[in-house]
Amino acid sequence: MEVTIDPLFLAWSYFRRRKLQQCADICTKILQDNPYDQAAWSLKTRALTEMVYIDEVEVDQEGIAEMMLDESSIAQVARKFHGTQSGRPITGFVRPSTQSGRPGTMEQAIKTPRTASTARPVTSASGRFIRLGTTLFEYIFHHENDVKNALDLAAQATEHAQFKDWWWKVQLGKCYYRLGLYREAEKQFRSALNHQEIVDTYLYLAKVYQRLDQPITALNLFKQGLDHFPGEVTLLTGIARIHEEMNNISSATEYYRDVLKQDNTHVEAIACIGSNHFYTDQPEIALRFYRRLLQMGVYNCQLYNNLGLCCFYAQQYDMTLSSFERALALSTSDEEQADVWYNIGHVAVGIADLTLAYQCFKLALAFNNDHAEAYNNLAVLELRKGRVEQSKAFLQTAASLASHMYEPHFNLSILSEKIGDLQSSYTAAQKAEDAFPEHVDTQQLLKQLRVHFAAI
Predict the structure, then answer these.
(1) Sorting pLDDT into bands at 50, 70 and 90, what band is 64?
(2) Residues 328, 331, 334, CA angle at the centre, nearest 5°?
(3) Where is the region Disordered (predicted)?
(4) Contact call for residues 147 and 135 (beta carbons, < 8 A)
(5) Is 162 exposed, middle or buried (0-12, 13-18, 19+ CB in 10 A)?
(6) Dihedral sign from CA coordinates of 18, 22, 25, 26
(7) Dist CA 180 CA 345 (whole Å)
(8) H helix or E strand, kind and range, residue 418
(9) How far apart are CA 421 and CA 385, in angstroms?
(10) Residues 158-176: tens digit of each pLDDT
(11) What is the pTM of this model?
């Protein structure tokens, strides 16, 4: 006697195994026979939603770093990890919140921290018991991306629940946030917390404060959440990110260490701690952290780029070029290629192969014509060849592209002083001092120029 599986049960099995397209196809066949099967409708909408779902906590994060902080300046023999040009301290870890870090496929989303597979679990063990209102809202909000109708549905559901259902208030807050009504979103999230202490609500509310450029308020909120949920990884990560965006790297590292105490496979924490060791002249220790990521199965351009730099500065030259070769093979954008060639150029400078360095910096500019650091370093190499005008043009370009960097201003000041243009030299030195007030060479140059002007 042949035993057949109930189609709805099979569809639910596919859903639990995250074979979402097969789940949706079976539900479609069920609905062709019985268009009024609510369980099939519910399960199909959930499957379609999960295909495109990304946790709202991690998307569209635009905090103080993008608006206030600039990318760490880079010396003539710079050590630049691959990262975005957005101003966030460069760690080599691309967060889900950044544009390049958003999952492009469901497989990538599953591997990304706090996305569809890790946000909110399925509400029951059977599709027949899922709340239809919840399913419908998520379908409209995520799959159809219709925020207005989602907002109307959440408002009606909140009113129907007599304003006592924390979940619907959170959904209202998400809608308001997506519409840019941050104060309204804040009210809804605060109200939801008064009804129920939930980790996600703290994350959503902190996201609002970051968008409002209130990092201290966000920090206090995260710490308040830790009082209710001690050791919660997502809250500790949120605190670490804010400290990192505020350029308080030591505090950020301490919180990332706390994250690893709770979850020793946390990719972001490992990458950021490794980056901190690298920038504090401990490349050997940084190398251990990045090798740990390799052991965990992380395999991308950024990781091999960082490994190449660590190997070079740890004097493990046999692994340096092979790591950069893999980084180039795994690169997926022109910006990534530019950063890798830029770092290979620094390796060439380190081994005194200036011809190779010149070619590498040129390649970096070929892939990214706005690469200010490459312009700066090319200017230095051009000056070594005696091409003063070309060097000056490169330095002016670098200074205009990245006014926050002190190196182009300082180099331009030195160059102008050598050719006798003291006024331009003084102006450039002042800009270098504004970018890096503690730079001793700039202060000495300014002192010499002031003495010279006083003598005139």
Answers:
(1) very low
(2) 100
(3) 96-117
(4) no
(5) exposed
(6) negative
(7) 43
(8) helix 406-418
(9) 20
(10) 999 899 999 999 999 999 9
(11) 0.72
